[in-house]
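Narrative summary of target 7.
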Amino acid sequence: MPNDMTFWAALLVGFFGGVHCIGMCGGIVGALTFGLPADKRATARQLMPYLLAYNLARITSYTLAGAIAGLIGAFGLSLIPLQHAQLYLLIVAGLFMVLMGLYVGGWWFGLTRIERVGSRLWRHIEPLGRKLMPVRSPRQALLLGFVWGWLPCGLVYSVLIWALSAGSAAQGALLMLGFGLGTLPNLLLMGAFAAQLSAFTRKPWVRWIAGTAVTGFGLYTVGLAIWNIAAH
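Modeled conformation, tokenized:
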């Protein structure tokens, strides 16, 4: 499977799914500012080290989770013949790209329903995050980001399932890194510009173009797998 294609598809999903991310994680900005003196809450420049630390840790958590998912998927695929495993890998990855493309395009949101899958795990992790609020230092923001990277989110979990088909821990990590970097603009540039960016990503024609691109990647991948199956 073209690894660069998967990376860019995941990045597009992260970017255009950013509106959903703001709804899930936007309250973190309040946690990052509540514990600061009033003068530090006054400017985005003062807040930037906190946002950078939080988002760096959040994306690191995504990348780690992707590595674990990729490793689990690779182990499962090792139990079947290599040739067949590669074809199954292409089909699963392609189908998930299609589903994510439908989400990005605004045509189907069924993937977000899997958020409840991680609710039990989150019950044990969430108290750790509460102990770090309000945030009074970039170090606290960094620790909070590591915790909040495991927040139940249907979009994140869907990409993690996608990462199961990546074929290795490294490729699973790369896929989740691409997704995390895609979410960065919406969560890092909170404020007036973020509102404009959010408005841009909400435009139907923008989402349709991005969704069509991701879906096209997926269909190409599935088609490639089918062609290889037919050839053998």
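The mean pLDDT is 78.
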